[in-house]
C-alpha cells in the first residue's frame, strides 16, 4: 500500500478571519505540514496542531522568498513522505493564485490532492468597500483580470482593446505598480476617461483603505496618497453605489490598530470583539499558560474537591484546567458533591456554566477585594474553601477568607510564563507599523510585554482591564489611558470604544 499523504490546496480567504471556510480551518487543524504565503490573516497559523511543520514561502509583488518550482518540489516531497500537507494561499488558490500549476505538479507526481476554494478578494474586497461587482442598474457582465503577468512570457495576454469595449464591471488584482499603464491602456482603447474606478488595499481587514477616482486621474490620486499593494481595483458605474452602501469603513474602531497581549488561547474573544468593530488587531501574546510545578498536589486537590464547602474560581483559565482534570478523574459530574461555587467575574462565571455548574456568588466588583467584600455577607466561619488559582496570584483572597474564619486550601492549576514564540510575526509588525493602543488584561501581560524590550510606539496608549493591572502599568512608568469600569472583556471592549469616540469628537 502507498504511504503517500494528501496535499490540500487551501484558500485562506481575503483577510477577515470570519471569511475563512470551515473546510479550510479543518485542514489547517489536522495538517502535518503547512506551506504558506504572506497571509493577510497570520492568526491562521494559531490553528495548527502541536508539532505541525510550518514552511514560509512568502510571496508578495517583487518579493518571492521561495521560487515557484521549489514550492512545487516541497509540496510533492512532503506529500510523498506520507504527510498531510496544506498549501495555504490567500484568497482562492485558483484565481490568480497559481493553484492550477501546483495541482498539475501534484497530479503529475501521482499524489493525492484536494482543492479547497476560498473567498477571493476580487469579490470580497469590493463588497467590504461598499461596491457590488454586479448590479441590475449598472451591469450584466463581470470581467476579472490580473494586472501582473508572468514577465518571462515576453508579451501580454490581456487584450485591453476588448476589455475597454466590453460592457459591465472589470475587476483586477496585482496591478497597483502598473496602475497608470493599465488605466492609460483602457482610455487609449476607447474607454471613457471619466469612467469611475476604486482601489481597495488590505481589503476586509482593519487596515483596509479605499480610494476613488476616474480612469484619467486615479493614478495621480494613488501617487499622492502613496497607495500601495496588495489591492483590488473595480472599474465601472457600480463604484457609484459606494456612497450608499459603504458599511465596513464606518465601524466605530475602523482604522485603529490595537494590540492584544493575552495568551494565544485566550486572545480570540477580545480580538474578535475588536475586529467586529472594525479594528486592525495585532495578536502579540506576552504570556503562555503552563501546568503547575506540583501536578500531583493539583490532581489530589481536584479529586477531593467534593469534600469542600466552597470552591472559589478567579479566572477562566483556572476553571478550564480544574474541570478538565476533574472529568479525567470522574465520569459523573455528581462526583463533585455539593460545594457552593464563587466566581470573581462574569467571564469566570460563564466558563463555569459551560461545564453545567451554577454559580452561587459573584462580587459586584470583579477584583479580589470585591470577592472578599461579598464573602463578608456569608457565614463562612470554620467552612472549608478550595481556592482554584494561578501560581502568581496575589494572596488577597487567601488572607481575606482566612480572616473571616474560613479554612482555605490553595489549588494551583497553572502558572504563567513568558511567551517566546511569535509565529505570526506580530512583534516585527508592531515595531514597524506602530499601534494606536495596547491592551492589558492582567499584571502578567504587563510585566512580560515590557520584558520584550519593544520601544513604546509613538502616539500609542495603554488600556487596562482593572485596578491591579493599572497599578502594574504605573510601576512600569506607563499611565493607562483608561481603566475599564467593568473588569472583563466586554467591559474592556466597551471602554475602548468610548475612548476613541471621545477622541474623535
Describe this protein's structure.
- With 505 residues, the protein is α/β, with parallel strands linked by helices.
- The chain is built from 18 helices and 22 strands.
- The strands form 5 sheets. A 5-stranded parallel β-sheet has the order 3-2-6-1-7, with helices on both faces.
- β16, α11 and β17 form a beta-alpha-beta unit.
- α11 runs parallel beside α12 and α16 runs parallel beside α17 (467-475).
- The radius of gyration is 27 Å and the shape is elongated.
Keywords, separated by commas or semicolons:
single chain; elongated; 5-stranded parallel beta sheet; 505 residues; alpha/beta; 5-stranded mixed beta sheet; 33% helix
SSE order and pairing:
Layout: E1 6-11, H1 22-30, E2 33-36, E3 53-56, E4 59-60, E5 63-64, H2 68-80, E6 84-89, H3 99-109, E7 112-116, H4 121-128, E8 142-146, H5 160-165, E9 169-173, H6 179-188, E10 196-201, E11 209-214, H7 218-224, E12 231-235, H8 242-245, E13 257-260, H9 267-276, E14 280-283, E15 287-290, H10 295-303, E16 310-313, H11 316-329, E17 340-343, H12 346-354, H13 368-375, E18 384-390, H14 396-403, E19 407-418, H15 426-433, E20 437-440, H16 443-451, E21 461-464, H17 467-475, E22 482-483, H18 489-504
Parallel strand pairs: 1-6, 1-7, 2-3, 2-6, 8-9, 13-14, 13-20, 16-17, 16-18, 18-19, 20-21, 21-22
Antiparallel strand pairs: 4-5, 9-12, 10-11, 10-12, 15-19
Helix pairs in contact: 2-3, 11-12, 13-14, 16-17
